[in-house]
Specification:
Its main location: cytoplasm. With 334 residues, this protein is of the alpha/beta class. The chain has 3 domains: 102 residues, Glutaredoxin (3-Layer(aba) Sandwich); 86 residues, Glutaredoxin (3-Layer(aba) Sandwich); 97 residues, Glutaredoxin (3-Layer(aba) Sandwich), CATH 3.40.30.10. The chain is built from 15 helices and 13 strands.
């Protein structure tokens, strides 16, 4: 094998155990480490492995690793990997960023950004300011209530963002969020756009309401509830969702792209029956994901509902299929 070929082959390292992963974290502490949590049953992972191989050639100073998520569950659980593909970025043995899903352009951008130690690739500065302002306008109008914060509502990355999320949840306010750590251009640009120098920032109908102190003042004066849109009560929402179609499947991913092995198996079984059904991706909505477990008193996914009633998970669906009872159940005859 020629040296170049050997180098390319060794570019993406496969990790098979927790110990090997921890050892690798230690050895690559000084450089950027990109870890692809993948699964052999997911075609989108194979595509992203090819993208990683290309990136490894372009960035020899970066360590690229693939780790089969279901084969090394201790590592997957530690970093809350709930779907594949997911990419984690490490520097100095610390997780510094994350990317969920098969987004090749975004992966390339993040690798370039982190590999150049915080300085951004030149391409990021080529957009004229008008473009950025247009983008910021679209982002601030992306939902009736938009929160620009550090991290996500599930994983806030600063105390002020955490407090803001807690207040919004306490008042049952429906909001979408944008993680300013995921985009330095937005992070800096929004300060100028809104003439507000700090984060978090809350917008309603595209207008800046303010940061944490202002939201606390509005809460104290009982004005917050009149300004921000209310979320429908969770239980009502779950009732509507479970009755959205005669046969409803709550799963990781969707009909076109399952994001866990169990969801993939249940799709195959349902597709073989020829019965029409709708799906809901629980990875897209943390409130539904957690709430449905309590609502249905069923702790895992996928969950199958017929006419709003829970049938069960994969094991029960397999059992019904094997007993020849699945079709009548799906048609609502049982």
């Amino acid at each position: 094998m020629a040296a170049g070929a050997a180098e390319a082959a060794a570019a993406v390292v496969e990790v098979g155990s927790t110990r090997q992963f921890e050892e690798l974290l230690r050895l690559t502490a000084k450089s950027l480490l990109v870890v692809h949590f993948w699964a052999p049953w997911a075609p989108q992972c194979a595509q992203m492995n090819d993208v990683m191989a290309e990136l490894a050639k372009e960035h020899p100073q970066v360590s690229f690793v693939k780790l089969e998520a279901e084969a090394v569950p201790e590592v997957s659980e530690k970093y809350e990997i709930s779907s594949v593909p997911t990419f984690l970025f490490f520097k100095n043995s610390q997780k510094i960023d994350r990317l969920d899903g098969a987004h090749a352009p975004e992966l390339t951008k993040k690798v370039q950004r982190h590999a150049s130690s915080g300085s951004f690739p030149p391409s990021g500065n080529e957009h004229p300011k008008e473009d950025l302002n247009l983008r910021l306008k679209k982002l601030t109008h992306a939902a009736p209530c938009m929160l620009f914060m550090k991290g996500t509502p599930q994983e806030p990355r600063c105390g002020f963002s955490k407090q803001m999320v807690e207040i919004l949840h306490k008042h049952n306010i429906q909001f979408s969020s944008f993680d300013i750590f995921s985009d330095e251009e937005v992070r800096q640009g929004l300060k100028t756009y809104s003439n507000w120098p700090t984060y978090p920032q809350l917008y309603v109908s595209g207008e800046l309401i303010g940061g944490l102190d202002i939201i606390k003042e509005l809460e104290a004066s009982d004005e917050l509830d009149t300004i921000c849109p209310k979320a429908p009560k969770l239980e009502e929402r779950l009732k509507v969702l479970t009755n959205k179609a005669s046969v409803m499947l709550f799963m990781k991913g969707n009909k076109q792209e399952a994001k866990c092995g169990f969801s993939k198996q249940i799709l195959e079984i349902l597709n073989s029956t020829g019965v029409e059904y709708e799906t809901f991706d629980i990875l897209e909505d943390e409130e539904v994901r957690q709430g449905l477990k309590t609502f249905s008193n069923w702790p895992t996914y996928p969950q199958l509902y017929v006419k709003g009633e829970l049938v069960g998970g994969l094991d029960i669906v397999k059992e019904l299929r094997d007993n020849g009872e699945l079709l009548p159940v799906l048609k609502g005859e049982n």
